[in-house]
Amino acid sequence: MPETRRDRIIRSAGFVGALAYAAAVAWLLVTQPRxxxxxxxxxxxxxxxxxxxxxxxxxxxxxxxxxxxxxxRIAFARADPAGRDATTQFxxxxxxxRQGWGRVYNDDALFRQGLEALDRAxxxxxxxxxxxxxxxxxxxxxxELRAELARGTTREASDFNPLRVFRSRK
Amino acid sequence: xxxxxxxxxxxxxGPSRRGVSAAREAVTLxxxxxxxxxxxxxxxxxxxxxxxxxxxxxxLALAVGLGLxxxxxxxLVPARLVAPERAALANANGAVVLAALVFAAAQxxxxxMPESGLMAVLFGVFYVALLATIGAxxxxxxxxxxxxxxxxxxxxxxxxxxxxxLAAPRGGGLVRRVFTTAVEGLTLGALGxxxxxxxxxxxxxxxxxxxxxxxxxxxNDRSAWRLLGAGKEE
Lengths: 170, 234
Prior knowledge:
Oligomer: heterodimer
Helix content of chain A: 55-70%
Largest sheet of chain A: none
Strand order of the largest sheet of chain B: 1-2
Shape of chain B: globular
Distance between the termini of chain A: 77 Å
Largest sheet of chain B: 2 strands, antiparallel
C-alpha cells in the first residue's frame, strides 16, 4: 500500500524528533547535571540564556569581603545554582583559598574544594582562563589561584621554613 | 476455509501481514525506547543529587546479544524496519528504531547490574549465561518475551529492593538485618554495593515498562497481547 502524504509527514517529523530526543539524552549523559536546578541551568547555558542572580551574587561578594566565607558560598550557590558562571565559581574557589589559608599550615580539604570550584570556573570560561578585575584580590587570574591552591596541597621542603609564618594571605 | 500460514520470509517479499503504522514506527517506538534509555540512566542519591549513567561496553555487548536472541525468536524482524523495498524515509525510521532498541537494551543491562564489585561480576556472568541459554533453546517470541519479563523483573527486585536494602546506610531495612544476621561475620564492603534513593527504583521500573512496551510493539507477526500470552491471533 503506497504511503500517503500524511504518513510521509509523520515519518519526517518522527525522524527529526527521534534524533533530537537522542541528542538530548546524549547531552544529559555528557554534561551530567547534578540537580534539577543545574539541569535547567545547563540547558539555558547551552543556548546562551543562562544568567546568574545578580542580587545574590552581590550579597555573596559582601560576605566574601567580610571574610564570612561560608555565608558567601551559600549566596554564590543561590546566585549560580548550575555552577555555570565563571566569575562566581572563581569567587567560590577564592573563598575556599582564603578560608583554608593558615599562617602555619593550610587546610588541605578546603584547598581541594577550591581546586574543584576553579575547575568549574575554567570549564565555564570560553577562553579556558578566568580573570577578575577586583582590586581586593591578591590573585586575579585562575592561573595564579590554581598555582597557589596546588602549592598549598603539596608537601615540600619550604613548608618547614620558619619564615613561612611571615607570609601574608593573598 | 482455513487461512494459510505465511510462508517463511513472506515479510521480505511484500507488505507485512500485520502492517505497522507510520506513527508507531516513526514516533511511538523511538519515543518508548529512548525514554526507557533515559530513565534507565537516572541514578538519584539520597541527597537528591542526580547522576546519568551511560552504557558500559559490556552492556552494549549484552544488548547486541539480546538483539540476536530477539532475531532468532522472530520478535525482531529487521526486514520490516530496513529493506530495499521500503522508501528511504521509512528505512531511516527503521534504522532509528533498531539503534534505539540496542541503546535501550544496553541501558537496561547497565541499570540492572551493580556498577562495581563482586555483585557486578556475578550479574555479568548471569546475563551472559542467560543469553547463551535462551539462544540455545530457541524459544518462540511469546515465550521469549514472557521469560525476559520474569528475568528482568526479578533482576529489578534484586537490584533495587534486596541489594539496595543491603547497601542502605545506618541501620538499613529489614533486608539488611536479615542478611547480616544470616551471614554473621561477613562484611558487605567486598560486594561493592551502592545505595540509591527510592526514586531510582521507580525510574528503573518505568524504564523496564517502556522497554517492554517497545518490544511488544516491534513489527512482527504477533499482536502485543499474544506475545504476553493473553488472547489469540485472529
